[in-house]
Amino acid sequence: MIYEYLSHTADVALKVEGASLKELFKNGLKGMNDILKEGFCGKVNRFDSQMTIEITSANRTNLLIDFLSEVLALTNVQKSIYCGVYFCYISDTKLVAQLYGTWFGNFDEDIKGITYHEAYIHRNEDGNLETCIIFDL
Amino acid sequence: MYHFRSLIMQKVTKEHIEKLTDYLWEIPTSFRKDMLVPARILASEQILDDIIEDRSLNQLVNVATLPGIRKASLVMPDVHEGYGFPIGGVAATSYPDGAISPGGIGYDINCGVRLLTSSLKMKDIKEDLEALGKELYAKIPSGMGKGGQIRVFSEQMDEVLHRGAEWGVKQGYGHKDDLAYIESKGRLAWADPSCVSQMAKNRGTDQLGTIGSGNHFVEVDVVEEIYDNESAKAYGLHKNQIVVMIHTGSRGLGHQVATDYIRIMINAMQKYGIKLPDRELACVPFNSEEGQNYFKAMCAAANYAWCNRQIISWEVRNAWETLFGKEKGQLRLMYDVAHNIAKVEDHVINGKNERVIVHRKGATRAFGPNFEELPDAYIAVGQPVIIPGSMGTCSYVLAGTTKSYDITFGSCCHGAGRRLSRTAAKKQVNAPVLKEQLRERGIFIEAGSFKGIAEEAPIAYKDVNSVVDTVNISGIAKKVAKIKPLVVVKG
């Protein structure tokens, strides 16, 4: 399972997994997009916009949260859900990524913020990278 | 099963809590070494037993570690677990060098509630409820993706951020008289648009006059019961009267301000030697450059929220006039209160007057009589406090009291408080069935999706009656009126 919903009174909590940092970030993005508009990316057959982003953070956990926050902001401004992502460069503290977005109608949910609370990237028992992400809805 | 990181910490249990009064409980500083002040819970014993179930009290203990915190960290009876701060929390830090924490205000800066009163009674609109719901749904955009009808760019946006509700009135979205009936008159003077990022401004371009999703709504209610005749009369409330409640905030602009500054503060904390048990508590000294920039940006976002609720009121007034005509279609603004905000206020601590930065996250200001900001009609009875319940239960109007200054830095609860996660609510609630059940009880729901109805079902919330009874008996606010929903419009 690349991500699953966890029970959390505050809002929505996702457990995300990936074999590598790149895969973990991609799966985190998939999870976020499914909250915004469930199943939308599975039906996308064209991209309407492209963006390049560069993010620097203090560590890999913060980098994931900052990456998702940046994509969320662009989603809102550009009215595009970024179902496609290509990481030109990714390390524990920096990434450069190309985003491919598709225009959408309305969201299912309005995400207010992506929190650092509970987020911590670590290796799980299966050897995958894993973290929890709590979204403020 | 996934183990949340915060579970590593020692969980607060009843054994750790001391009873101060029947409605005030304390976790002493001896509970954890890093606590600078005690943590206090305003609740009946029954509500306390429920609160202990989640991790909100551990989060309250974490708040008690904020640099410069004064007297106690506090939670109201509607508290529930959040991220960093609990929802329903109040924390006052010393001015000017105590901490300011964006997490203590939340992502939805100046999320708040306003109540409009009409001259109509239940018998006047009984047959029009369904049509009213459809008209309101058509006139008020949710703004979830597509945005609203109004666009503000560059200088205009800066004017909105500077002037708040005043900008809306100036553009014709309401009456000049409305401004006196808004907390801080709908404008915080510290606002500085230059401290708000371009990304935040871009997100706010097309969201004025939109409600968003989640627990935000526009609701038509009937006044079911009056508890305090003097206050009700002052507020212009009477039994069987039709009123309209609006609940929303600063939308994407406010969310982005919070996101931007939490990130800035996480990186700046080391510079100020601040270490905290949760990154979402990220803070800096209020008088630092980062602290001042955040406060000015937060004030700007708060102004945007007041302008947003002002424009939504105009949309509601339009719908009202369409259905009921000009004469019967007037709606008066009773009051507008914020429940996610930080304010610089003066309070008495240990017998001395002190200036503090009061963080209210899911908590409402509840100032008592003789507060000079209040309109003349309200001075003798205190500030109105509006407490929404859930779509199938009821809501309340209360009046602030002077006792609230002593106990809660002049604060009160902000709603019923969630008891179920959205995921759990969706699993337990059949939304089409719920919609029909509510309709049979005379409550009409107009919503963008069944998912949204399920997440906000009455079962997802605590009993608002118990929460309000607790604040009423404890004396931090007094019950004025109970209102019951008739039409609920959601994004």
Automatic annotation (TrEMBL), chain A:
Keyword terms of this UniProt record: Calcium, Metal-binding, tRNA processing
UniProt keyword rRNA processing, yes or no: no
One family name in Pfam for this protein: Archease
Record bears the keyword tRNA processing: yes
GO terms for biological process, alphabetical: tRNA processing
Domain Archease positions: 3-136
Coiled-coil intervals: none
InterPro entries linked: Archease, Archease_dom, Archease_dom_sf
Gene Ontology terms for molecular function: metal ion binding
Family indicated by similarity: Belongs to the archease family.
Annotated protein name in UniProt: Archease domain-containing protein
